[in-house]
Design brief:
This protein has 84 residues and is mainly α. Helices cover 58% and strands 0% of the residues. The protein has one domain. It contains 5 helices and no strands. It is globular and about 30 Å long.
Length: 84
């Protein structure tokens, strides 16, 4: 499957597809957090949350979050680990 390289033209500081999707997560989650009691997140926090996912999985996960009723609730709920 051919991966589009449009992300290189959007922002100059984004050098990979993974960084592009992390920036999309960051913008969307921080947009929902404005004017609430929650602090805005950094790109590092998002990268740590999705660090165990491969890039194609991050892409699919982003589209799942977009389709969900509440983007950030789906994001944090699906990345929660169960403690045994």
């Amino acid at each position: 499957m051919e991966i589009k390289r449009d992300y290189l033209n959007i922002k100059s500081n984004i050098k990979s597809e993974r960084a592009y999707y992390i920036s999309l997560f960051l913008e969307r989650i921080n947009e929902e957090r404005k004017d609430t009691k929650w602090k805005l997140l950094s790109a590092r926090a998002i990268a740590n949350k999705v660090g165990h996912l491969k890039t194609p999985e991050i892409r699919d996960f982003y589209y799942q979050c977009e389709k969900a009723r509440n983007f950030s609730e789906w994001f944090f709920g699906r990345l929660r680990f169960k403690v045994k």
